[in-house]
Write a structure and sequence with these properties.
Elements: H1 2-22, E1 24-28, H2 35-43, H3 45-50, E2 54-58, H4 62-70, E3 76-79, H5 81-90, E4 96-105, E5 107-111, E6 127-130, H6 136-147, E7 160-163, H7 166-175, E8 180-184, H8 187-195, E9 198-202, E10 213-220, H9 221-226, H10 228-247, H11 249-264, H12 270-276, E11 280-282, H13 288-300, H14 318-326
Parallel strand pairs: 1-2, 1-3, 6-7, 6-8
Antiparallel strand pairs: 3-10, 4-10, 4-11, 5-8, 5-9
Helix pairs in contact: 2-10, 2-11, 4-5, 7-8, 10-11, 10-14
């Protein structure tokens, strides 16, 4: 009897391990700029297309998601451009490939009423927050300030850029301890609606055609090399979800908000969700030129080492273009 029970236990462990190995692991943030992943998790479309289970990993920061991907714990991730760039460089191009875009826009410079900021000439001796040192908004904020002649306190200047998580920014904004925030959605709109902040700058206005990559779909290179058929199915779902989001924003917003509520314990207020949605666009285009420009900015700021990195090969759009052709959509160059 003991031998039989031991055999059953071992068999269960083997079967469990096999099931785990067959699952595809997809990471995203509980954030509306990762809408395709959230919608796909809610309606089960990835599992249906893949014919196997999906293990969903929820992260709140890009570097943590990239560490998990680099360690082999995540196969596919929705992530911002700068964490993806950093992971690619640190692994000497072996960690990942960008296989699609997810969102464009969705970041703003918001100023506090009472800060005294009325024009771009009034940021001296002010404190500006970004979500994380070296993240996409941090790079954008520092590049913009430098382009307007400011220098940072740590380099002898008179502007402080403080990397502070978005929830904490709300508290400091309310206390009057910071003057402005370069924030992604829905946080920028939340500052405006809840704390009467003012949208000083929509970052889209700084880019050609008002488009720049905010979230990307990246795949672990080893997973892509071993499973191109699975990655193509993932991209089929991703493109279809993008089209659904564009065609039926009201319906899909509700599904996404319900899923966010399930993941973080509380959905976004309907008014906040509706307004935030106006400030970004869903897309499957990684907007590769803007990805490279973000990397150039990060390099100038000293985030990518002393030698300008070679990012050739970071994008691989072959499978995405195959999907677009079958969907009778224009392939990307």
């Amino acid at each position: 009897m003991k031998i039989l029970l031991s055999f059953i236990a071992v068999l269960g462990m083997v079967l469990g391990a096999s099931a785990q190995e067959s699952a595809v692991r997809i990471a995203h943030f509980p954030n509306i700029i990762h809408s395709q992943a959230i919608l796909g998790q809610a309606n089960g479309s990835f599992e249906k297309a893949l014919g196997k289970p999906v293990e969903w990993e929820i992260f709140n920061a890009g570097p943590a998601a990239m560490e998990a991907l680099n360690a082999g714990h995540v196969d596919v991730a929705y992530v911002g451009p700068n964490p993806a760039i950093n992971a690619f460089i640190r692994s000497e191009g072996q960690a990942l490939r960008v296989v699609a875009g997810a969102s464009s826009g969705g970041a703003s410079l918001v100023v506090r009423l009472g800060s005294g900021i009325q024009s771009d000439k009034e940021f001296g001796n002010k404190k500006i927050t970004t979500p994380q040192l070296g993240n996409t908004q941090d790079v954008a904020a520092r590049e913009w300030l430098l382009s307007h002649g400011y220098q940072f306190v740590e380099k002898g200047g008179n502007v402080s850029v403080l990397p502070i998580p978005n929830p904490e920014q709300l508290i400091l904004f309310q206390k009057g301890e910071i003057d402005a925030a370069w924030a992604p959605e829905p946080w920028a709109t939340r500052i405006i609606q809840e704390l009467k902040g003012r949208r000083f700058l929509d970052e889209r206005d700084l880019w050609p055609d008002r488009k720049f990559c905010t979230a990307l779909v990246v795949v672990r290179k080893a997973f892509l090399d071993a499973n191109p058929d699975l990655v193509k199915k993932i991209l089929e779902v991703h493109v279809d979800l993008t089209q659904q989001l564009k065609a039926n924003p009201a319906l899909t917003q509700k599904i996404i908000n319900d899923e966010i509520g399930r993941e973080v314990g509380k959905p976004l207020p309907a008014k906040l969700l509706e307004e935030s949605w106006k400030w970004f666009d869903v897309t499957y285009d990684p907007l590769s030129a803007t990805l490279l420009k973000s990397a150039d900015s990060a390099f100038r700021l000293g985030y990518l080492g002393k030698q300008k990195p070679d990012l050739s090969g970071i994008t691989d759009l072959r499978l995405l273009n195959e999907v677009l052709v079958t969907r009778k959509l224009e392939p990307l160059k």
